[in-house]
Fold these 3 entries.
Entry 1:
Amino acid sequence: MENLTPLFIVALGVVVLLLLIMKLNLNTFISLIVVSFLVALALGMPLHEIVGSIEGGMGNTLGDIALIFGFGAILGKLISDAGGAQRIALTLINKFGEKNIQWAVVIASFIIGIALFFEVGLVLLVPIVYQIAKQLKVSTLYLGIPMIAALSVTHGFLPPHPGPTVIAQQYGANIGMVLIYGLIIALPTVVIAGPLFTIVAKKLVPDAFQKTGDIKSLGEVKQFEIEDTPGFGISVFTAIFPVILMAFATIIDLLQDVWGVSDNLFFEIVHLIGEPTPALLLSVLLAIYTMGIARSIPMKDVMKSAEESIRSISMMLLIIGGGGVLKQVLIDGGVGDSVAELFEGSSMSPILLAWIIAAILRISLGSATVAALTTAGLVIPLMEGTDVNLALMVLATGAGSVIASHVNDAGFWMFKEFFGLTMKETFSTWTLLETVISVVGLGFILLLSIFV
């Protein structure tokens, strides 16, 4: 019973956080930091380590995403303020028709999601989703949920994303098989968690689907006559330039492994531009030219758009950092160790065990990547002497690690702030959506395990 105490403390911390935000209307960022201190004390962390854990959580979280979000927001704003996002939106509407627009968003998000990290795909697609919703006079959430579903599924199941790639290495699984099985599972999961789940979400929180054209992170969005917008080709090229760079780097990485060639200057340069931050920086520089200089827009106006984009995401970055603080306190406070003790000596099916452990760690700690990597360390000894499919083990771990994202996960706050939702609306959309992805993914993994 003693090893359950940290989990009770986590649950109590979540309740206190919700009371501070929803009942006392305390600022979300301040609430997260207050609860992080309280939880650290309740977990028995040494007093002299608490501040270091909190500062480390803030630094690690923003260190990972501040540059990505900053450059992503600038890129999105430049494309939006030049009319590029509006041009892309109108062209997609014309090609797919209003009735099929959700599928257009799903396909675009899935393709972008394969190549880009979740956060990068999100900041790139939000301006386009906003414009489509505005043109069709539908809720941004109506298109936002399918977009998020595609990005989350690719992030959780498909290499070259960090989670499945690193777990595959830990388990000794073949990356190619992880990708093939991952695609088989990902495609139907996106359909269920995207367009189909949107129907359910609309019934759960109808008020959230009344909000149209309200994405605060974009700031003030300009409208154009179609003839005043950049061409569709150059708009798309500018928007997906980070995808091109990162996909190119991934392909070169794979070829390098196949050929067995060691690193040289060429490969080092490719690796560099394939990282999210340099890829986005180069894309911003491209957008300054294609969306600004090439259209005779004064540099002063282009830079004004860039500055406005950063101003509009400043509070969101603090809130995301606050979510990272709470996550770090839970990790440093030993919550993961308590979960590990619960499953010592278990004789359960390795696939199901990997999913359950990853799910509990995800709910307790908040970070999908930490949950997945910790799970790998716990279940590897239990796989010895079994003939379990290693690629399916990777996918089961990935599926468990995305379940029930809530207040200790930065993704929860990203979604809430981007779409201007209340706490209740975020739980009923984002948290439930992530749970659907996890459970449906597990179902398809178990089904596939019968045949492979």
Entry 2:
Amino acid sequence: MSGVDYDLVIVGCGAAGTASALAAAERAKEENENLTIAILERAPFEQRGGNTRWTAAYMRMENIDKPADGLVEDMVSFSDSFMDRAYAETLRDEAGETLRWVESKGVDFDYLPTMFLTASRPRLLPIGGGRAIIDALTLRARALGVEIIYETTAWDLTLDDEGAINGIKVRMADGTSMLLKTSAVILGAGGFQGNKEMMAQYIGRDSHKIPPVSEGGLFNKGEAIRMALNIGAAGKGQFDAFHAETVDPRSKREEAGVMLFPYAVLVNKQGKRFTDEGVTTIDEQYEEVARKIFYECEDHIAYMITDQKMYNIPNYEEALQTDIPAIVGETIEDIANQIGVNAENLKHTIDEFNAACPTGEFIYNRVDGLATTGLALNKSNWSIPINEGPFIAYPIICCNVFTNGGLATDLNGRVVTGDEVAIPGLYAVGETSGVYYGKYPGGTSVLRCLVFGRRAGHDAVRYIAEKEKSYQ
């Protein structure tokens, strides 16, 4: 289109942004539309991709063509029915087709080992994780002429006299700013977990102490959400919540998950249990436990206590993604002293727990019904005595995988106002679009980035083509 720097600008180079860019470039080629498309990425090349770069990219799929049973029902019920059912249904209906599209770009999928030794829903993974998705989609997009501009931050949107997008202001690495004229913008810049001010505003007190799950989250500073809200976009998703995960605070690696606690006990700094560690499969309870650690435990930290039987659990290493060795002690008192909890309380907690454990067969990979009895807080499954030293401890804190609050959109990713009217030329995808409330339905985040990123890319080409015709 004449008079623009780029027909379409995508903000963010994660799964959602790259899917949008490639889908748009392919659709433009199919329809003989000569469009100029650019991706703006805050990070340098070697750190591009936001959260996607670092994630294993679990997907809630039976196989590459079929979503897990109950996908729609899980997504709606986990949100206490605040999620739009049509959104979940669209995800279900287009997931297989979209993953086949990603596969056609060179990404292979398989059932690789995950952190979840017990799981209520299957997890399909791209071989090479999220980075494989980024590398494959950007390679194909570049081949179709999409330009990727690194170390560039978008900070404001401009509108024409009719309220349609006509520009985006960007700031370069040297601090200078410029206006890019454009016909459409797709915001795929993640959430706001890398912005301590927004975290305090929406998540609340001490939220600055919640680390992102990976360094990719530090690039997600929320400008994309803010600049859309500033021009009348509606918010959606639970702004005061985030997807939480249990990790080892000693580790500096991405997603240093500690997911073995269903087979152990968790204690706070007083040496006392505070949750049912075995209430259900790990994939359906780790988020709630992470939240309890942050909101209910002193100094926002807890400790997993177990013994040598941990090493008998098949594939236990997969559930310990931390790269820091366990804290080991010959006695429970020794462990208590090393982790700085009350030794008398911890010894009493372990002795009381051991006495309440039942006899029966321990089965690590499904709920086994081995429940304690007689405790003020019983454990529902996998209750086995902790009595074979040397004893083992891991510290655990809550990390922020992604924030839930974002922009309201329709099913094509068009950003809408509080009156549910689409803002012409503005789209939001991935974590920038708000959809989650309550409990996160695991394995749906990257999946929705791809499905709705592709839809937004297609619709943006339609919008730009129609706008061009209106000027002729």
Entry 3:
Amino acid sequence: MRVAKSRTISPLDPAAAEPFYRQIYDRFRGAIASGLLKPGDRIPSARVLATELGLARGTIETAYALLAAEGYIQARGQAGTVVTPGLRLQAPVAGTVRRPGSRVATTSFRPDSILPFQMGLPALDAFPRKVWARLGARCVRAMQPPDMVHPPVCGLPNLRGEIATYLQVSRGIDCSPSQVFVTSGYRHSMELIAHALLKAGDRVWLENPGYPPTRELLRLMRMTAVPVAVDGEGMIVADGLKSAPRARAAVVTPGHQSPLCVSLSLPRRLALLDWAARIGSWIVEDDYDGEYRYVSRPLPALKSLDRDGRVLYAGTFSKVLFPGIRLAYLVVPETQVERFEQVSQAFAGGSPQLSQALVAAFMREGHFARHVQRMRKLYAERREATAAGLESVLGKHVRIDPQPGGMHLILRLQGKRSDRRLVARMHEEGLYGEALTDWFVGGKGASALLLNFTNIDSRRTAEGLARRLLKLM
């Protein structure tokens, strides 16, 4: 059996927009397609290749997992990993292969990659994959014919029950399982709300700065976004009352304002609830990472103060587990359960039942709560290490905001640097960042970088990345 060497693939490009795992995938696939690697050839182990290339082993394993999923390679235990025997490939059509560094338009606000500082990603290296695999195997073995039909459009009853119990204990939300609707993500939750409670032409308060995809969702649904300024106490409710006192809804992130990470103060929470009750408007509480507060215990949800049934609570598993699970949930007022059931029957196809069963088991056996506790401690450590590493290198050029929680840092750029231009250069050099000005309506706001810290494992790593960032400044 011929053994392929790492030099079989062309060198990796650290300046490419493509992440390393994708470059490795493309190079092996190209080598197989061109005949450089033949069926039956053994390829280097992930450990060996990681050592030779100076990369994390998980990066190599991700590339190999893609190749195996598409049938290019096969793992053969102690015999190693080989190019799939008998593999027959057609010659590639010119112009169809994505090359490293090519700029491909994305349809998502967040890319499907793993880059340094990438927003929206939890600590993927710390996820309990062994526990997850064991539960997954058990769920698969327990599958019966009734589990293989169309999934319930409102969500698996077991998962809805586990979510309701978790929210009661951790977020102070008193709800029944029937009020919990399982969705495929924040956008799906917002789509259900729009179909059930809103209509074209409605005005909706949005935080400014605020999560850009929400503005785009409202635009596509022909609703009018009303930007409401944010200060150190969260959304300035008084400004919303001046701009659009009879708005149909408000979308807020009261736990950690997205992206400034400030918390909505109690007086403003009460003012917002009073406005919704008086006008008959709706409040959408996007609690995307409320579990991660480091200066004290997580704050109770705004929904826990709702006595008039005007708050819809949107949560997600993406930030606690991993984005690829594509599961989120929406808690609706009891009076609206029937309406949301009707809308779900019409517009929802239901999330995969196996995934829901797996998450339900993960929660039922206590793994979910333990994982949140571990991540809260880990993120506090990584936040401190990342901030210290960045400040030691970039201290003269940036100021890092003090924040009580969240999963990212805000680096205020000193002088007249453009955060958008810097972010564009970061992407060209294989780093990720988001420009704070992109989160403001009209793009007018303070210049700052938004950098995720959850996958930065040490101060040393942060300092190395900071030196790369300094060169771009």
